[in-house]
Amino acid sequence: MNTTTNEGEGVVRPLRVEEIEWIEPPQHHSAYSKLLVNPENSATSYFDFRISLYQPKGYVEDHVHERAEHVYYILQGRGLMKLDGRPYVVEPHTAIFIPPGVVHSLANTGLENLLFIVATVPAGELLMTDNWANRSEDNQSDDQNPQEEQA
After folding, report:
1. Where are the domains of the chain?
2. Would you call 2 exposed, middle or buried from its count of C-beta atoms within 10 A (0-12, 13-18, 19+)?
3. Alpha carbons 28 and 23: distance in angstroms, whole number
4. CA distance 100 to 75
5. pTM for this entry
6. Separation between Cα atoms, residue 98 and residue 85, nearest integer Å
7. d(CA 79, CA 83)
8. Domain 27-133 falls in which CATH fold?
9. 80-126, pLDDT tens digit by residue?
10. CA-CA-CA-CA torsion for 53, 74, 63, 38, nearest 10 degrees?
């Protein structure tokens, strides 16, 4: 059975969560992810599918994606998701869709780990073109343009 694509890119096989190491992406604080399916470890050109765990008080700073769309699905814990500045409490069985251009952040506000799944399309934009939205007054406008800082 062939376990790679014709081009030799990525793996075509089941991956167990234990096989993947936790990473702490840029601008994440006590907030970790396991990249379960993405172009670096699988035969996909489009998907980033990960499980994330934010420890109590863990968070990701405000940021925005120019093209990427996210779907978050909360499995365990409680947190506060901000979408364009509006706060929303998230807890198990909550799904959140985040279209491109929406400034967002997530913080674990509970006493236990916040565990959730994130699916993102397209995959490659996350580390290449994330814009972190720590804006000075000069950069704030009606259309909420993020600061041009790269992740």
Report:
1. 27-133
2. exposed
3. 10
4. 23
5. 0.77
6. 13
7. 13
8. Jelly Rolls (2.60.120)
9. 999 999 999 999 999 999 999 999 999 999 999 999 999 999 987 65
10. 70
